[in-house]
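Hi, here's the filled form for the chain we discussed.

Project: internal
Contact: R.S.
Residues: 104
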Amino acid sequence: MGPTGAEIVANLIKIYEEEAHQRLSDLQDALQAQDSSALWRTAHGLKGSSATVGATDLVVLCHELEMLGRQGLLEGAADLVARIQSEAQIAIAELNALDLGDCR
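And the returned structure, exactly as it came back:
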Protein backbone atom coordinates (compact mmCIF):
# COMPACT_ATOMS: atom_id res chain seq x y z
CA MET A 1 0.00 0.00 0.00
CA GLY A 2 1.40 3.44 -0.96
CA PRO A 3 1.43 6.61 1.06
CA THR A 4 -1.79 8.50 1.64
CA GLY A 5 -2.40 11.98 0.29
CA ALA A 6 -1.88 13.39 3.78
CA GLU A 7 1.49 11.62 4.05
CA ILE A 8 2.58 13.04 0.71
CA VAL A 9 1.56 16.54 1.77
CA ALA A 10 3.38 16.15 5.10
CA ASN A 11 6.52 15.06 3.25
CA LEU A 12 6.27 18.02 0.86
CA ILE A 13 5.93 20.40 3.80
CA LYS A 14 9.03 18.89 5.42
CA ILE A 15 11.01 19.22 2.18
CA TYR A 16 9.83 22.81 1.73
CA GLU A 17 10.79 23.73 5.28
CA GLU A 18 14.29 22.28 4.90
CA GLU A 19 14.77 23.97 1.53
CA ALA A 20 13.43 27.30 2.78
CA HIS A 21 15.83 27.31 5.74
CA GLN A 22 18.76 26.65 3.40
CA ARG A 23 17.68 29.35 0.96
CA LEU A 24 17.20 31.85 3.80
CA SER A 25 20.74 31.12 4.91
CA ASP A 26 21.92 31.52 1.31
CA LEU A 27 20.16 34.90 1.12
CA GLN A 28 22.01 36.06 4.23
CA ASP A 29 25.31 34.89 2.75
CA ALA A 30 24.61 36.68 -0.54
CA LEU A 31 23.62 39.84 1.29
CA GLN A 32 26.75 39.77 3.40
CA ALA A 33 28.89 39.21 0.28
CA GLN A 34 26.99 42.01 -1.51
CA ASP A 35 26.35 39.54 -4.35
CA SER A 36 23.30 40.75 -6.25
CA SER A 37 23.47 37.81 -8.65
CA ALA A 38 23.29 35.26 -5.82
CA LEU A 39 20.47 37.27 -4.25
CA TRP A 40 18.26 37.12 -7.33
CA ARG A 41 19.01 33.46 -8.05
CA THR A 42 18.25 32.43 -4.48
CA ALA A 43 15.14 34.61 -4.29
CA HIS A 44 13.96 33.10 -7.58
CA GLY A 45 14.32 29.56 -6.22
CA LEU A 46 12.54 30.38 -2.98
CA LYS A 47 9.81 32.14 -4.94
CA GLY A 48 9.11 29.00 -6.96
CA SER A 49 8.96 26.60 -4.05
CA SER A 50 6.88 29.07 -2.04
CA ALA A 51 4.40 29.34 -4.90
CA THR A 52 4.09 25.57 -4.90
CA VAL A 53 2.96 25.53 -1.27
CA GLY A 54 0.71 28.58 -1.64
CA ALA A 55 2.81 31.09 0.32
CA THR A 56 1.70 34.00 -1.85
CA ASP A 57 2.92 36.83 0.41
CA LEU A 58 6.37 35.25 0.39
CA VAL A 59 6.22 34.89 -3.40
CA VAL A 60 5.62 38.64 -3.77
CA LEU A 61 8.57 39.53 -1.51
CA CYS A 62 10.88 37.09 -3.27
CA HIS A 63 9.85 38.56 -6.62
CA GLU A 64 10.75 42.06 -5.38
CA LEU A 65 14.19 40.87 -4.25
CA GLU A 66 14.69 38.95 -7.48
CA MET A 67 13.97 42.06 -9.57
CA LEU A 68 16.27 44.17 -7.40
CA GLY A 69 19.10 41.66 -7.73
CA ARG A 70 18.61 41.26 -11.48
CA GLN A 71 19.18 45.01 -11.79
CA GLY A 72 22.40 44.67 -9.79
CA LEU A 73 20.98 46.80 -6.99
CA LEU A 74 21.51 46.20 -3.31
CA GLU A 75 19.78 49.24 -1.82
CA GLY A 76 16.76 47.95 0.09
CA ALA A 77 17.91 44.33 -0.18
CA ALA A 78 18.61 43.97 3.54
CA ASP A 79 15.08 45.09 4.39
CA LEU A 80 13.60 42.69 1.84
CA VAL A 81 15.67 39.78 3.15
CA ALA A 82 14.47 40.54 6.69
CA ARG A 83 10.85 40.65 5.51
CA ILE A 84 11.34 37.40 3.56
CA GLN A 85 12.75 35.70 6.65
CA SER A 86 9.80 36.83 8.74
CA GLU A 87 7.24 35.83 6.13
CA ALA A 88 8.94 32.45 5.62
CA GLN A 89 8.62 31.68 9.32
CA ILE A 90 4.92 32.55 9.17
CA ALA A 91 4.40 30.36 6.09
CA ILE A 92 6.26 27.43 7.66
CA ALA A 93 4.25 27.75 10.89
CA GLU A 94 0.99 27.83 8.93
CA LEU A 95 1.98 24.80 6.88
CA ASN A 96 2.94 22.88 10.01
CA ALA A 97 -0.38 23.82 11.62
CA LEU A 98 -2.37 22.10 8.87
CA ASP A 99 -4.41 19.19 10.18
CA LEU A 100 -3.01 16.20 8.29
CA GLY A 101 -4.09 13.60 10.78
CA ASP A 102 -1.47 11.35 12.36
CA CYS A 103 0.83 11.14 9.35
CA ARG A 104 3.65 13.33 10.69
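Let me know if anything looks off before we file it.
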